[in-house]
């Protein structure tokens, strides 16, 4: 039941165009590629034994690199180079890691050395362009970027970046000319219009800015990104159109899953005036918007995540105060399971930011994932004080309490979440499902069953709900026909789910058909090889199927597996390992149609 805030990172380019652009980019050459996910290194601890030598520092850098500790990786690589160990591979890793952390002022030095040593990687030109722009040498920044002969740069990055460099030179006409290179491409319409509006605003051309922003507002082919919504609503407020700004936000508010962000933006609009500051005030901030847009483009495609991290860091280099860039970078760290790094970014977002609420929610999720439950609860309770009666905060609180095995309090907060709902709809079925799980764990099966029935109705008989209710009836030796029918229905809806496959195998087991039980439980084990409950079930089926050595092996496996370990009765499993299983009472299915359906299943072996 993972729930993530979405809609924050939306960019304004169509997917087909993104793929076309990505097919032509080549930041990393063979030596510097794959800087995020390095291969395992056998001598991981060797650096601890080395003196402060070039090789010792190199090994330390490698270990830090593998561990995704990029601060120390860069530090050790730099020391390696300073001690005389210089080669293309090392230089490439060094300037790319430094750039990925936004340390462009350092990266440019090692990129320069690499270029003198024959490195033709075009990212050196990007670093040079960014460094020159930041230090006011706009002409050199254009020369560096224009030297890259790849379509991603020529068609997208260069026109946007160069336009803002001309803004830096106070040359409106040339900035407009540069942007017009994008105007003929339908896929680029909203990007072109947004930056044209920003540049028009910068030069005080309010009517032109309004014209461009209206194009973004009226583009029916694409939902507006939240950043565009911030920029345009800010423009409207400063130009006496507060009501139009509020209506624009309201357009997205009704059906949005980012209501808290929109509510914060709405409050900011209400407090704003003609004296409010522009969101993009300088050429640097404009360049930051360019690289944020490019970063989000790459982030939308899994193979582009390494590029996304670098460009987000460049965006932060230009504008360290853009909270959308911060939360996007944190999201990338989450995807790499670098949760502490992600939370550092979340904590850097202040309470007045529209990003504060989603940042703190995601921080709580990360803390819970690390089993820091008390810290996660503390964050969520603070959010609840700031957002009384907020459904999502109440729901998440219930989740953290449930996984930390505090079922009474989990039940309390799930019920509070349900009481905060104004109307019932399909989207609320997970809270009833979660409440049922907590009731079940709290030995209140009657209430659990009632909540599951509610979840079943709201979810249009979701396979997860069907499976949980059906399996639970089997577990409690009740409603055998209904249980089998529900599990069959869940299997028909999702035949490749290992947990559902396990439940189907358990139907066969409970009714004494051990051959079919083994068949389905083995398949479930293949789908979920680390699931302790599935291994335990497979062991039981093996035992009654006459394969006792294999049964003991599976029970031993179950004790060491991570998934659903908290659901496993370890004492019972150890007893089975020592003493085996005695005969158990078999359940019987009365409905002939259900019997027929069970016996006719044969697609598993096809």
Query: Percent of residues in beta strands?
Result: under 5%
The CATH homology group name of one domain: Tetratricopeptide repeat domain
Q: Uncertain runs with pLDDT below 50, 5 residues or more? A: 1-9, 14-36, 38-50
Quickly give the structural class. mainly alpha
Known CATH architecture of one domain:
Alpha Horseshoe
Number of strands: 0
CATH topology heading of one domain: Serine Threonine Protein Phosphatase 5, Tetratricopeptide repeat
Name of the level-1 CATH class of one domain: Mainly Alpha
- Shape call: globular
Q: How many DSSP helices?
A: 32
Average pLDDT metric: 88
Main beta sheet strand tally, sense and closure: none
- Percent helix, as a range, is 55-70%
How far apart are the termini? 31 Å
What does this protein structure show overall?
- The chain has helices at residues 15-22, 54-66, 70-82, 88-100, 104-116, 123-134, 138-146, 151-168, 172-179, 189-202, 206-217, 226-238, 242-253, 259-271, 283-299, 305-318, 323-335, 339-347, 356-369, 373-386, 391-403, 407-419, 429-441, 445-458, 463-475, 480-493, 498-510, 514-527, 532-544, 548-560, 570-579, 592-600.
- It has 606 residues and is an all-alpha fold.
- It has a domain at 36-120: Serine Threonine Protein Phosphatase 5, Tetratricopeptide repeat (Alpha Horseshoe), CATH 1.25.40.10.
- The radius of gyration is 29 Å and the shape is globular.
């Amino acid at each position: 039941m993972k729930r993530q805030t979405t809609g924050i990172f939306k960019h304004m380019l169509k997917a087909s165009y993104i793929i076309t652009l990505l097919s032509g980019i080549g930041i990393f050459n063979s030596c510097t590629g794959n800087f995020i996910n390095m291969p395992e290194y056998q001598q991981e601890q060797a650096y601890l034994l080395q003196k402060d030598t070039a090789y010792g520092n190199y090994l330390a850098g490698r270990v830090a690199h593998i561990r995704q500790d990029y601060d120390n990786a860069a530090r050790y690589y730099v020391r390696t180079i300073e001690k005389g160990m210089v080669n293309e591979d090392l230089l490439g890793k060094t300037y790319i890691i430094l750039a990925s952390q936004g340390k462009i002022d350092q990266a440019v030095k090692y990129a320069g050395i690499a270029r003198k040593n024959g490195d033709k990687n075009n990212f050196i030109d990007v670093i040079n362009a960014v460094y020159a722009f930041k230090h006011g040498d706009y002409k050199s920044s254009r020369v560096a970027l224009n030297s890259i002969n790849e379509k991603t740069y020529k068609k997208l990055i260069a026109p946007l970046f160069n336009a803002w460099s001309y803004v830096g030179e106070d040359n409106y006409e040339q900035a407009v000319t540069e942007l017009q290179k994008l105007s003929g491409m339908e896929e680029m319409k909203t990007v072109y219009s947004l930056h044209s509006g920003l540049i028009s605003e910068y030069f005080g051309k309010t009517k032109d800015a309004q014209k461009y922003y209206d194009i973004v507002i009226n583009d029916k082919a694409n939902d507006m990104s939240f950043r565009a919504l911030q920029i345009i609503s800010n423009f409207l407020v400063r130009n006496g159109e507060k009501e139009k700004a509020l209506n624009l936000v309201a357009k997205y508010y009704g059906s949005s899953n980012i209501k808290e962000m929109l509510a914060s933006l709405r409050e900011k609009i209400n407090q704003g005036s003609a004296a409010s500051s522009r969101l993009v005030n300088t050429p640097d901030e404009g360049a930051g918007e360019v690289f944020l847009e490019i970063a989000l483009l790459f982030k939308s495609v899994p193979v582009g995540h390494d590029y996304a991290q670098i460009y987000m860091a460049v965006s932060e280099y230009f504008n360290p105060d853009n909270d959308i860039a911060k939360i996007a970078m944190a999201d990338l760290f989450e995807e790499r399971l670098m949760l502490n790094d992600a939370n550092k970014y979340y904590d850097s977002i202040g309470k007045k930011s529209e990003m504060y609420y989603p940042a703190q929610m995601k921080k709580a999720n990360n803390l819970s994932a690390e089993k820091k439950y008390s810290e996660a609860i503390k964050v969520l309770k603070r959010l609840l004080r700031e957002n009384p009666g907020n459904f999502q905060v109440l729901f998440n609180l219930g989740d953290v309490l449930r996984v930390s095995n505090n079922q009474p309090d989990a039940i309390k907060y799930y019920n509070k979440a349900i009481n905060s709902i104004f109307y019932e709809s399909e989207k609320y079925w997970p809270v009833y499902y979660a409440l049922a799980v907590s009731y079940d764990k709290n030995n209140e099966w009657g209430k659990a069953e009632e909540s599951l029935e509610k979840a079943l109705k709201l979810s249009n008989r979701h396979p997860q709900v069907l499976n949980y209710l059906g399996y639970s009836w089997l577990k409690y030796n009740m409603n055998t026909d209904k249980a089998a029918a529900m599990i069959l229905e869940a299997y028909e809806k999702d035949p490749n789910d290992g947990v559902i496959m396990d439940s189907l195998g358990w139907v066969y087991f409970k009714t004494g058909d051990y051959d079919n039980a083994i068949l389905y439980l083995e398949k479930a084990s293949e789908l979920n090889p680390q699931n302790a409950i599935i291994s335990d079930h497979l062991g039981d089926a093996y035992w009654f199927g006459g394969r006792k050595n294999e049964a003991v092996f599976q029970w031993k496996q179950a004790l060491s597996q991570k998934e659903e370990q908290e659901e496993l009765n370890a004492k019972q499993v150890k007893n089975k390992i020592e003493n085996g299983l005695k005969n158990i009472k078999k359940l019987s299915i009365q409905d002939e149609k259900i019997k027929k359906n069970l016996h006719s299943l044969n697609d598993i072996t096809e």
